[in-house]
Amino acid sequence: MMKTCSTNKQSQKLLNPLLQELRQCLEVPISTTSDNNNDVEQQLFTDLEKVIVRVLELRAKEEAKKSNMTGEIKTMRAMIDLTPNYARGYLRLGQLYAFQGYQESAIDIFKKGLDMIPPVDPVYPLLEKECEYAKMRSEKRIDFIANLPYEVVGYVVDSNFLTMDAIWASIRVSRLWREKLVQIVGPSWEELYISKYSHQDQIKILPAVFRHVVDFTLDETAEVIRTYSDLFQPEYFPKIQILQIHEDFPRNINGPVYQSGVQDALSCILSTITNTLHTLTLTLLDISHAPSLTFIVATCRNLMHLTFKAEINDLDSLFTGMDQLSHETRLRSLDLQASHLSRGENMGVIPKNGIETLLRCSPFLQYLSLEGCRYNDDIIPNIQQHCPKLNQLLLSRSLCSIGIAAFIQKFGVLSALSPTIARTSHDDGNSELQMLVLGGRFSVKHVQSLLNKTHGFLVTLCLGINEEGVNDSVSTVSPEKERERVQQFWETVSQFNMTSLKRLVINQKSSFATVDNNDAIGKIIRRSPHLHTLELNDFHGANGITDNLMEAIATQKQLSTLYLQRSQLLLSNAAGVRQLLVDLPIEILDMNGSCGLEDEFLQCIPGWKRMKKISLGKGKNLTPDGIFQFTEALAQLAWLSEIRSFGINFTDEALMNFCNCKCLKLLSMERSLGTTETRTALRARGVYIP
């Protein structure tokens, strides 16, 4: 306490003379003549400047006595900003940087002082001398980045050997390292991913690497997205082609949600990179945060691939001004997804005129996906009329009928946009549809019109009927009439011979399904003789997987992947089905969520000699002997690498048979995995047990 009082008294003693001078300056009388006023004011400002400089000098001395270099540097910078011709400020600031080892910063300060100070100033020679000393100290530092040849440095600092975190750390060493390494490791910045988990030091040096960026992904909150819009300048991103922006939830869930300004920020970002951008992905929390599709396609004239995902309940704003769109776009793919799980009136409705105008102005469209939003059935003839090059069409009105995103994740898409794809094309450059996904309610008339022209060229067909049937409007007819419409839909599809079809997916989650539907679906399978992948999901109750469907599956002599998920096996002649299925070249069998497995059906699985992966559901009247014989036969399969079970009780004796599987790598059981000795024996053979 005594020390603090003495320090304050000493500072007051030093400042008292300065305060007296300041009072004298302020008490200078001002004349009534304007010329005299200007002279007096100029003299007043000069005197005030001198007083403030002397105050800062005293403060710098006090900081030096306390060995507070940070405070002294801050004070010296304030002196230089106030009086750019103050020579001693440059000298002292440069010396401080040099003392801390920042020779490059010291050289910059000395050079700036030499530019601002006249050569006649007595401090000028001292600045020259200190600048030379700093250069000598900088040259004496051992810096392999500065001294090694360019090729050697490029080999040492290689993204194939170093992690990106190590490269980021190397760039932060010094300005010389940053300038050289950013150039050497240029290809590493072609794909740049920034999220809320990114290091702040990485974000600081982003402008140094932006010129190399080709693919930029920003996964942040709305507040941060707005700040990044200031970084988007045309000269910063000369090479950018792919932009992905994913809006994350606020860090503080209970805090304010930053909504305002996001739309303007995204519009600003897109306006600065219009020339090179060809792929845009926007994943937003709310549709109000997005610029309109009209603005996007009108601003980014070279845009070829557009993916838009948001919480959608009002699509009118997204298609605002689309009627005025007059130029042709270069869009090759358009993916519009609703991220909500609402149905009925809460689902967004695509304006009829808006989507028709967009399709008419996108004659090069090859991939179109609309998921989780409502649209008029007339969209199908509009697509046929305006999109002659369309190769893949994915339409799902309800997220519960077919999840297109999950479908794409499981099967992928055709390489429709690849120049090497072998697809049917006409002399005029138009293409035939090869992938068709329909989920929800669609008019039988439009589906028939679509299949009339494409059934001979389809490679992938995915059909899903949800609880609302197949009509466009919400059904008000009786259940009997609705069942007739569902049956008419399947009968219509079964009329076509799809000789090019390789992948068939049918999701029949509908209370209006009947046994007659299975007969029609069996016809569809039989009329597609070259299937490699078949998926029959959600066949429940009396409309389960029957003998008729199994007989249709048995006709597929090229079938390698079979999915029977969330379905019920209703086999009246399991032994006969076993004889029909035994010779199929199946490699993957997935029955996750299914039930009704019997001993006879299990015994046909080991007959598939090419089997690699098996996923089984729940059994029905399975016996311990049948399970033991099943596992014993499985052990003889040469390529089996993965077994999953979600409802079968395996005994220790049955599990021990898996020790004889030569290629088995994964064994996952929902029920008990036997004793510790059994699990130890399996793990000793290299089997991973979760």
Automatic annotation (TrEMBL):
Keywords linked to the UniProt accession: TPR repeat
GO cellular component: SCF ubiquitin ligase complex
PROSITE patterns (UniProt xref): TPR
Manganese among keywords: no
TPR repeats: 87-120
Keyword presence, Iron-sulfur: no
Top-rank taxon: Eukaryota
Gene3D superfamilies for this protein: Ribonuclease Inhibitor, Tetratricopeptide repeat domain
GO biological process, one term: SCF-dependent proteasomal ubiquitin-dependent protein catabolic process
Family matches, as InterPro entries: LRR_dom_sf, TPR-like_helical_dom_sf, TPR_rpt
Protein name: Uncharacterized protein
